[in-house]
Design brief:
Blueprint (H helix, E strand, L loop, with lengths): L5 E8 L13 E7 L8 E8 L5 E11 L2 E12 L8 E12 L5 E15 L6 H7 L6 H5 L3 E18 L2 E18 L2 E22 L2 E21 L26 E23 L2 E20 L3 E4 L4 E13 L3 E13 L2 E4 L10 E4 L2 E13 L5
Antiparallel strand pairs: 1-2, 3-4, 4-5, 5-6, 6-7, 7-8, 8-9, 9-10, 10-11, 11-12, 12-13, 13-14, 13-15, 15-16, 16-19, 17-18
């Protein structure tokens, strides 16, 4: 995320977070990017540099042409890091297009691409700190050229239609392509996945000034397919310790042995109803009803284990909360939710396999509940 392109960051806690889909119970962080400027064409350039080889450059073009508002930016950032084997490099492309063909229709199209690479120097123990210093990398970090690399492409479209007074429908769709790689002394791990979803939400606003109602009814669907391949690497005695290590090397030492070969498929359907009733200036009632159905399937193959799980994972939950103000200096917020789940997956380790947690099981039912009170006194200034 290029923070130069961000308009605002909103923390949504409690009940209304259910608008944002499965697993949003309790809260979400909503990041809104900037729109283009009011002139037909605007351009800007940002550059910075610092210690440890840090430098960043960002260019942006934006503007408004008739009923089309646009913004596109590109950035490059890199750093050598303050420790050995801690270099990082990233490329970011961000595009946003807003089309308003009439007062009733608004279409927003988004596209982002990120390529991020960072070497992993890992942690060190006290003896290595005393012997080499605070800039030292873990003894395996350079030997196995440990790094993380993420490539992600996300596209989304949002359409809002105000078809009548105080009534509108919002339709959304997105797709995310992700390719992740992590190297370590335990193996070379690849995790490509595809995530896509769509949603529709109907909003109705009605009532009188002192008793106004906001009703939202919606449905959404998401699916994900994640593939994981973990290839074995030689032990330390068969690694060339004298090889040249540079900042951006992606050299790996894969063997023909496959430690993990698995596919995780998930799909979820969600229905929700939210009714907010404004009673007075500092008093309102909020009703939230939501149903989630999540289906998981795992096909897993390892050097010593083959499993397929096709039991659906389902969850039912409820939320209840209240928030308000007392006077001008005291704010309170109490939110509680309960989630009952069945047939969730869990990962476990096998002795002799190190950190390779490639084994799964069904853990049966689980129940989670949270009660979160929050209060805040605003200091008075004189």
């Amino acid at each position: 995320m290029d923070w130069e392109t961000v308009k605002n960051v909103e923390v949504v806690k409690g009940l209304v977070a259910s608008l944002y889909g499965t697993s949003a119970t309790g809260g979400i962080i909503n990041i809104t990017t900037k729109d283009g400027g009011s002139k037909p064409v605007n351009s800007s350039m940002y550059a910075s540099a610092g210690s440890n080889g840090f430098r960043k450059i960002l260019g942006q073009v934006d503007g408004t042409q008739g009923n089309v508002n646009y913004r596109i930016s590109y950035s490059h950032v890199q750093s050598h890091g303050y420790r050995v084997h801690q270099a990082s490099m990233a490329y970011n492309l961000s595009e946003k297009l807003t089309w308003t063909p009439s007062k009733k229709i608004k279409v927003i199209q988004l596209l982002t691409y990120t390529s991020y690479f960072n070497q992993n120097s890992e942690g060190i123990n006290l003896s290595r700190y005393d012997m080499v210093g605070h800039k030292a990398a873990n003894t395996d970090a350079i030997r196995y050229n440990e790094f993380h690399k993420t490539q992600r492409l996300t596209g989304a479209t949002i359409v809002r239609y105000d078809f009548a007074k105080n009534q509108d429908i919002t339709v959304k769709g997105f797709i995310r392509l992700n390719n992740y790689q992590e190297t370590s002394n335990n193996g070379d791990d690849f995790k490509p996945y595809v995530n896509q979803g769509k949603s529709a939400q109907y909003n109705l606003h009605f009532g009188k000034e002192n008793l106004f109602n906001h009703l939202s009814l919606g449905v959404d669907y998401q699916s994900m397919k994640m593939t994981e391949h973990l290839f074995a690497v030689p032990d330390g005695d068969h690694i060339n310790n004298d090889r040249v290590d540079n900042y951006w090397s992606e050299e790996v030492f894969d063997l023909n042995t496959t430690l993990i070969n698995q596919v995780i498929r998930q799909r979820s359907t969600r229905l929700f109803l939210i009714d907010k009733l404004d009673i007075a200036k500092k008093l309102y009632a909020l009703l939230n009803v939501r149903y989630d159905y999540v289906y998981n399937r795992l096909d897993s193959s390892t050097v010593s284990d083959n499993k397929t799980f096709q039991k659906p994972s389902t969850s039912m939950g409820g939320e209840l909360g209240v928030r308000g103000e007392v006077g001008k200096s005291f704010y309170y917020d109490v939110t509680g939710f309960l989630v009952n789940s069945k047939d969730e997956f869990y990962r476990y380790r096998v002795p002799g396999r190190g950190n390779n947690t490639a084994f799964y099981g069904n853990m049966g039912a689980s129940k989670r509940w949270v009660l979160r009170p929050t209060s805040h006194t605003i200091p008075l200034t004189f």
